Amino acid sequence: MSTLKYFVRNLILGIFAAIWLIPIVWLFLNSFSTDPGINIRRFIPQSFTSKNYSLLFFDSGDTVARFPDWFTNTLVIAIFTCIIASSFVLMVSYAISRMRFRGRKALMNVGVLLGLFPGFLSMIAVYFIMKSFGLTNNHWGLVLVYSGSAGLGYLIAKGFFDTIPETLSEAARVEGATEAQIFRKIILPLSKPIIVYTVIASFLIPWMDFVMARIMLTSGLSKDWTVAIGLYNMLDRVLINNYFARFCAGGVIVSIPISILFIIMQRFYVEGITSGATKG
Question: What angle do CA 213, 217, 218 make, to 5 degrees?
């Protein structure tokens, strides 16, 4: 009976996995289609070509699909956001985990409560604030928006830091180490899993975001767009019949860096989540 339950359970999971993969496989196959438009009558294209990928990168005369510019913009924004946001998260998490100060509990509660509200509720206010400083239509403005509230995501990292023995910090203090030295030379070397998790999470936010980038980048110049805005623009009803295959190719290319990052860092990523969730 247990064997039958095991078989049925895995069969159901396999069916769900296949259903989940269907749109991904369809997008991948259409990225090699010789038909530039969308074709919903065929799951597998009638013929294949790699031309769509070369057009994305080397068609310099195309003013619509400026994929190299979009990819570069998104990569720069994601890298700087990742550095700033990861630093904020790790420092805030360490301070809340190790230090005892007046208002600590209240600050933690406020941070958790603010995290419960959907981010889009503050987008209009953020836009007008950034506009008053002249930071709309500006990639650095996007970096500030993405990384500004990163410290509120301290909870998982704090849970991980709580698992590191306090005796290590106390021994370092006896030897005359400052809090900054303890954090940099003792805590961080022992925190590789949570650092990997924080870095990946911080990188994914700007890499996949569409809504905030759409609100902030309103100049109408395609060279300033991020990948998400540029690919979405290819689905315009005027363009879709000529750019859908290239849209699919762009989707595949965008997924490659993240897929490689996850494959390389998977062990540390999973360990960071589970370790940080054991103690809060």
Answer: 130
Q: Across the chain, what does the average pLDDT equal?
A: 83
Report the pLDDT value the prediction gives residue 271, as an integer from 0 to 100: 58
The CATH number assigned to the domain holding 161 equals 1.10.3720.10
Q: How far apart are CA 190 and CA 62, in angstroms?
A: 49
* Domain assignment of residue 231, given as a range: 62-276
On whether residue 269 sits in a domain, the answer given is yes
Q: Which residues touch 109 (CB under 8 Å, ≥6 apart)?
A: none
Is the pLDDT at 278 greater than 50? The verdict is: no
Please indicate, yes or no, if residue 223 is contained in any of the structural domains. Answer: yes
Distance CA 172, CA 202 (A): 30
pTM of the model: 0.83
Residue 170 burial (C-beta neighbours within 10 Å; 0-12, 13-18, 19+) = exposed
Cβ-based neighbour number of residue 160 at 10 Å: 28
* pLDDT one-digit tens code per residue, 97-130: 888 888 788 888 887 777 777 777 778 888 888 8
Phi and psi at 33, nearest 5°, equal -75, 145
pLDDT digits (tens, 9 = 90+) for 211-226: 888 888 887 778 889 9
List of long-range contacts for 256-260, beta carbons under 8 Å, 24+ apart: 258/203, 258/204, 258/207
